[in-house]
Amino acid sequence: MRTTIRLNDQLLAEIKQLAAQSGQTLTAIIEEALRQMLARRKHLAERSPVQLITVSGHGPQPGVDLDDSAALLDLMDSADASA
Predict the structure, then answer these.
(1) Alpha-carbon distance 19 to 6, whole Å?
(2) Is the confidence at residue 83, as pLDDT, over 70?
(3) How far, in Å, CA of 76 to CA of 83, rounded?
(4) Number of Cβ within a 10 Å radius of residue 79
(5) How far apart are CA 30 and CA 19, in angstroms?
(6) d(CA 18, CA 30)
(7) Rounded Cα–Cα distance for residues 29 and 19 (Å)
């Protein structure tokens, strides 16, 4: 089937160079690239969702600010020192 596509001049130049180096036609290079893209999309769509492991509890201890990484490190260091 014939169709017309518009490509960026630089991209077209790179594809033509690749085609010449590999001994393939411009059409073959474009078809291969499109097939690879479609295969990746299909593979990603088929992936199963990630299951996160959660535990029950009452959240962080009083005074623990999960947004303050420096304070968390200090708290963990002091817990390690006392253990």
Answers:
(1) 18
(2) no
(3) 11
(4) 9
(5) 10
(6) 11
(7) 6
Return d(Cα 54, Cα 57) in angstroms, integer. 10
- Over residues 2-26, mean pLDDT: 95
Q: What percent of the chain has pLDDT over 90?
A: 43
- The residue count of the chain comes to 83
pTM over 0.90: no
Look at the block and give the residue holding tokens 């020192």: 81
Report how far residue 79's alpha carbon sits from residue 76's, in angstroms, rounded to the nearest whole number: 5
Contacts of 18 (CB under 8 A, 6+ apart): 24, 29
User: What residue spans of 23-68 are helical by DSSP H?
Assistant: 26-46
Residue 9: strand, helix, or coil: helix
- Read off the pLDDT of each residue in 61-79 and give the average, rounded to a whole number: 84
Reply yes or no on whether the pLDDT at 82 is more than 80: no
